[in-house]
Every structure is written in structure tokens, then in C-alpha cells.
Amino acid sequence: MKVTMVGTGYVGLVSGVCFADFGHEVVCVDKDPGKIETLNAGGVPIFEPGLDALIAKNVKAGRLSFTTDLTAAMQDTDAVFIAVGTPSRRGDGYADLSYVYAAAEEIAGLIKDFTVVVTKSTVPVGTGDEVERIMSEHVSRDLFEVVSNPEFLREGAAIDDFKRPDRVVVGTTDARAVAKMRELYRPLFINETPIVFTERRTSELTKYAANAFLATKITFINEIADLCEAVGANVQEVARGIGLDKRIGNKFLHAGPGYGGSCFPKDTLALVRTAEEANVALSIVSSVIEANESRKRRMANKIVAALGGDVHGLRICILGLAFKPNTDDMRDAPSLTIIPRLVDKGAEIVAYDPEAMDEAKKTLPDIEYADSAFRAIDGADAVVIATEWDEFRALDMRRVKSLLNAPNVIDLRNIYRGEQMRGLGFSYTNVGYPKPKET
Ligand code: UDX
Asked: Could you tell me if residue 107 is inside a domain?
């Protein structure tokens, strides 16, 4: 099949490349000539493990190309995907759909034969209807069908998530569109991936409901972690104990500094706004948003408390800045809330992240950056593990101790064991564990 992918952001680029790898002929389009130039020169504008190799392979095979020219890209296309950004609108939290609608209008003007127009961007319920209305002003209604096909991929695991998803959700009841979408995802039938065909609005809402539910799960375990600390219980064992119940499931039960990223914060907010408009109270999702925001703020207090209540003049090493490992994405990362608070309290910050430092410098230009974990640790009064990158999981702790001014480790991702760390002479604080017994 011939596929046009409009938007080479995270979702667009990964989806386009993976569709090409499925064997389809894919043209990725972006208005930003810089991005297209980078891609055509063999570069990748985002950090995603495995993506560079997959792009090179499919470009070489002649199935994948990049252009700024939508007219050329849409020649004989079977399906056009709209994968442009839907950022939170400043001030009100609604999803900003102006890029989606502009793309729809442009696409409509170029349609000649029956084309499936698929919204891949996360869009609020009813967006497909509006896209259809806009397009109908420019092209005959029987020449296109607007389909919702939300993307559930995670940054850092995007290729695997795309190629081996738990399910694919497709929102359309039009038989021609169903046939095209089946053909597009045919390679997934081989591994028996369930494809949920449903009505368009239901599909749009499914994406938000999924993200809101996952954000709720994380926030729930984070609050249980606080309770564990207060009453002397162990959150990882609670998570295991509840997660083995199949009705609950063991995923997304890792306590930590609060969720961040490009999806959960934006989508939970947009869902609540949609519900408000529909006069429905989403009290659980609203509480999740509030609890997660306040958690990120409280993490700074947790660090200060672990360091005796005053960090004035202390040099604190932050390991990990991105909102999670294997990405350079800093959007809504807990580190962006924690670091300025520590600076306000008089701490001197030195940070290291394997991939996200260039991004971090845009928001946090005034802190010090080191080019390796050990350089960041050298001479610090405490180490805070803010993101669980693999390279932080097995640090030579004897060396860490010898480099530190004072042996303080605050592990916001629970990647070390308390007994072991205390055995090595560290003052060690993590999330959701009983306080160490006084000796
Ligand atoms: C998420 C969804 O998982 C994905 O399906 C959707 O398409 C986009 O949003 P992503 O934002 O890439 O993906 O990352 P994810 O791995 O889901 O993590 C989100 C945040 O939750 C991170 O800040 C992570 O650290 C945090 N998290 C996740 C936890 O704190 N605990 C967990 O158990 C899981």
C-alpha cells in the first residue's frame, strides 16, 4: 500500500518507518525543511533506540522517503495519516488542534481517488467529526473516510510497541476504510494481534481512557508508597502482592517521583477538559493530575529531608534528567520541578544524563552539567537518582563512595537495595520503604 505520513514528530516518524518496515511504500512529510534535510541526510531528529538503523534499512530498500512536498507525497496514496502535534493549549489545558485541522484542509485539496484519512495524533473525542466537516468543504464526501487510529507506543520502546502491540484500535464503520486498515496492519495478523474495530468517537476516547488509567495506576502506587514510608511497609512487595492478581496486573506499579513525558500530563488534562465541556465530573482523573503535580514538588522536600533539612551550600549530583530512560525527552520530567526547588533552597546542582542534557539545558541553563556519571558524582555531597537509566543500575558503589564528599544516595527510582547500600556505609533513601532500623 502507499502511505503518506503527515508530521515527522515522535509518533509520525516511528509509525511511518514501521509501516515501511511492514513492506508498505511510505512518504513522510513535514513542513520543517530542517527536519526533512536531516532525515534525508541519514540523521534522526529524535532519540529512539533502533530507529536510525530501521530508517536506513527502509530508505535503502526504496520503501521510505522524506519530503516537504505534500502534493507529491499524496500521488496515488491509499492512506494519509495525520500525525502532527496536539500540544496543551497554554492556559486552559485543551488540546490545540490547529495543526490537525490545517493538515486536514491541505490534504482535502489534494484528494483525487478514494483515500483513507487517519488521525494518529491523540485527539479529543469529536475531532474526527470536525476533520470530516473541514474536508467536506474541499472534496466530495465519497472520496474520503476519516478514521481514528490512536497510537499507544512508549518512548524508548517505540519500535517494539508499534510492531508488537497488545492491540490496535481502529475507529471507523466504513467498509472500504476497514478493508484498507486491515491491509495496512496485515503483518500484525500473523502474530494474532487483536484489532479492535469500533466507532470513531469510541476509538478517540479509548486512547485518553488508556492513558488516564495508566496515570492513575502510577499515582495510586505512589500514594501507597507514601503510606508505606509512614507505616513501615514495603511498596515493591505491596506492588508484587497486588500485581499478581490478574485483575490488577503487575505493570505500571513502580513507585517513583511522579509521571512525566509528552503524553500522560497532556492527555489527562485534555480528558478532564473534554469531560467538563460534557458536564461530566472525572473526579479520579482530576485528583490524579493534582496528586502527581504535588508529588513532583514534594520530591524536592524529600531530598532536603534526607540531607538533614538544609541543603544550603551543598553540592547535589542529579543522575538522570529525562522523564524516563532511553529518551532525550524532558517534557514534564520530574527533574524540571525538583532541580529549581533545590536551587532555591541554596543547593548547587551538577547533573548528568546520557541523552537529555542538550534538551535540559534549554530549560535549566544555569546548573552545571558533567559528561559522565562519575564526573558528576566527584566531590558532591549527595547523589540523587532521578531517572533509572541502565548505566545507573550497576554503578561501582565503592567508587561512588570514594568520590563523594558525604555518602548520601537518594534513589527516587528504587534501583538499589537499602540493606546493601547501608552495608556499604551509605545513608540511603528511596521511595516507599520502611525507615531503616536504628542501630
Ligand atoms: C505513555 C504510554 O505508556 C503510551 O502507551 C502512550 O502512547 C504515550 O504515553 P511514555 O510517555 O512514552 O508512554 O512513557 P511510559 O513508559 O508510559 O512512562 C510514563 C511516565 O510514567 C514516566 O515518567 C515513567 O517514569 C512513569 N512511570 C511509568 C512510573 O513512574 N511508574 C511506572 O510503573 C510506569
From this structure: yes
Is the domain of 248 the same as that of 310?
Answer: no
CATH, residue 241: 1.10.1040.10
Q: Are residues 144 and 220 in the same domain?
A: no
Across residues 103-114, what is the average pLDDT? 97
Is the CB of residue 261 below 6 angstroms from any atom belonging to ligand 1? yes
Please name every residue paired with 169 in a beta bridge, in sequence order, or none if there are none.
196
CA 11 to ligand 1: nearest atom: 7
Angle in degrees, 0-180, between the axes of helices 283-306 and 334-344, rounded to the nearest 10: 40
86 annotated ligand-binding residue = yes
Strands (E) located in 239-365: 315-319, 348-352
Residues 177 and 61 in one domain: yes
Going through 105-245 in order, the beta strands assigned E by DSSP cover 115-119, 144-148, 168-171, 195-198
Cα separation, 415 vs 387, whole angstroms: 10
Q: Considering the chain, what is the average pLDDT of its residues? A: 96
154 lines ligand 1 (CB under 6 A): yes
Q: Is the pLDDT of residue 5 over 90?
A: yes
399 in the same domain as 299: yes
Ligand 1 geometric centre to CA of 195 (Å): 22
Label residue 115 by pLDDT band (50, 70, 90): very high
CA of 373 to the centre of ligand 1 (A): 24
Q: How many CB atoms lie within 10 A of CB 430?
A: 25
| pLDDT-derived band at 89, boundaries 50, 70, 90 | confident
Select from 161, 191, 221 the last residue of a domain.
Answer: 191
Q: Is 218's C-beta closer than 6 angstroms to any atom of ligand 1? A: yes
Evaluate if residue 190 carries a pLDDT over 90.
no
Amino acid identity of residue 56, one-letter, is A
Banded pLDDT at 439 (limits 50, 70, 90): low
> In this structure, what CATH number is given to the domain that contains residue 134?
3.40.50.720
| DSSP three-state, residue 202 | helix
Query: Is 274 within any annotated ligand binding site?
Result: no
Q: Is the pLDDT of residue 367 over 70?
A: yes
Mean pLDDT of 339-368: 98
Contact 400 CB / ligand 1 (< 6 Å): no
Q: What is the pTM of this model?
A: 0.94
Is 30 annotated as belonging to a binding site?
A: yes
**Residues annotated as catalytic (active site), given as ranges:** 263
The domain in which residue 275 lies consists of 208-289
60 and 130: one domain? yes
* Test site for ligand 1: of 250, 259, 328, 413, most ligand atoms within 8 A of the Cβ: 259
What average pLDDT does the segment 87-94 reach? Answer: 78
